[in-house]
Amino acid sequence: MSEGTLLDVVYCEGWDPAARAVTGRLSSGTARGRDAAGEQYAVALVRPDTEMPLVLLEIAWKHSFARTVLFDELGRRRGFFEFRVLEDGALFLMKIEQWTYRFDDQEEFDKKSAGHLEMSFGPDGKGWMHQAPQGYGGGSSSGQVSKQVSELTTPRPAFGDWEPLANSGPLALRTPDAPDTDPPLPADERPWRPSVPLCPSGMDEMFTAGTRFSLSGDHGLVEVELRDAGKLRMPSGRLVAADPAFLDSDAEHFTVTMPPGEYQVEVSVIRFVDEPAHERVAAAKLVVADVPVATWETALWPGQNALFLGDGEFYGYGVDSGTGCFADAAAVPAEMDDDLLEKFEEVDPYVDVTPDGADGNIIAFTTGWGDGSYPTWIGRSADGTPVCFVTDMLVLNRARMMAS
Description:
The protein has about 400 residues and is mainly beta. It contains five helices and 25 strands. It has helices at about 30-35, 150, 165, 205, 340-345; strands spanning about 5-15, 20-25, 40-45, 55-60, 65-70, 75-85, 90-100, 115-120, 125-130, 140-145, 155, 170-175, 210-215, 220-235, 240, 260-270, 275-285, 295-300, 315-320, 325-330, 350-355, 360-365, 370-380, 385-390, 400.
């Protein structure tokens, strides 16, 4: 046993912040099985003869996620260190959040007077820092921050090798031989969940005519209609998705490409059942192959990495004209002039435009509720081949599908 602070290893579901107690204790064997399967669990490093952890490790390898939580002597969480598992298997520290409590009776995460520091890092080590040393009642500041990638990277620990991830100096860890002492919690009742980017949902139903959804926020009942927006001519096979007002020579294309050719564009329109004249575009799909989608992933531009998205975040393109589009990179004009821009004012709910002298065309469509930022998803077949690209207006993101 190494020299250092003596702590007991307690495997569990996590930390109950209301009770300030470890909850859902697991045996070492159960935790090891979850680790191997990539399923979430937690590791509490507890001071002997107490119920109080010094450190809690939250692990969900299936989501490329690990988080170190540090506690003070009163059971208040004072630090979070959030990691992602990179493609090479190493852990990358992408986010740090720390609190400094000034009084014993100060509430956890007291925004007004607890000192707060937050830093986030991209894959190149560059990031952003926000700090309020005396709490937000005492002012705050923000700025850029940069670290060497080597400082942010550490090997992914083997099961049981928790000292490097604990970030608490030298430790002497012992694992009591304890059985499962609490009934297993269903996944949706566990006290924490990993940070995961926004995921597409209901994509098949979104492109099935007649499907009904109840919109979130009591916004009404809608029914899906499909519109054929024509064929997109793609001489290069490099897809651009953007607000057409911003199309120019600097427009990026997605890293995943397709063979040059012509591809069908379908538009999913929702019509309000109680207000039939009211319709909105929910999504637009570029069909590469008429093959069922087995998996979805986010479409990326060069330099992006979906592992570095935070909880519920997504990469998307900004819309200021209430309009999005699909275009081949070879059809993008060097500059969007007024004459060409006028052609996109006729979108209702889509329009097909060919710039002068271009081999390819641009198919534009209205964007859901209007301006905003919208992700594009790539659907892949069972063998991994890209079969479609879908720009999602997020109109149905939290909608409930109704039984037919």
